[in-house]
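Morning F.,

Quick status update on the modeling queue. The single chain you submitted on Monday has been processed. Sequence for confirmation:
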Amino acid sequence: MKTIHALSLLPLFIPCFAAAHEGHETGILTPTDPEVEADFDIVHARITSNGQSAHFHMAVSGVSGDTRAKATGSLAGSDVYSYVWPTNLSPSAVGFAADTGVLSLAVTAHPDFDDTPLFDENRDGHLNNDGDTWHSHWVVLAPHPQCPDGGLGVVDIPEGESPHLPATWPGLPILIDSPGWQPMFNEESLDIHVAFDSNVSLQNMQFDAVTAGLRVNQSVHEPLLCVTDVFDTAGSLELPGRINQ
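Structure tokens below.
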């Protein structure tokens, strides 16, 4: 698997490859990369809206969601695999304070912990044992000096502070929300539908698509969760995608 550190990505965007994936005429298209594991090799990304509902779509050259992180037996040092749509929406659009970082929709799986305490994703009657089932989060990302090479991490909540948080915040000391939007995997495609409050404007939403690995640090405020590997990006992390285009 090819890994690219978040800060080493060249600021280049390949706008469109018509042959990248059959049936994908809109959004961001990018060619298959044989150096990337196929289930993380992005070939297409798109966001469309219908009123206050947004449809986030990503397609890969392999079978989406086919690989999950291996269990380590503990929270500290454990890995998280993710499909992520960074956006230009204000974090306040989903209940965080404005101007805290890059609001991103993430679909993640991680066998060592459960961070969706309100939902039973594997439908076994228990709310605390389904972290390894693909599920959704809103996260706020920003560079952090203690992440690898000063790369991206989920924004830390300093000890003693009580920031503005969404009602479905799972209790971790980072800017993360567990809203319960259900990801749908179908062969190469990943789709998730998200509803926004009526006061949120989606008209000028910009986005990118990223597949990445994150790691839980040994100490809570290092910060807790850093991006350690960027497997692939649809664009250039400069949000080249436009909603409904």
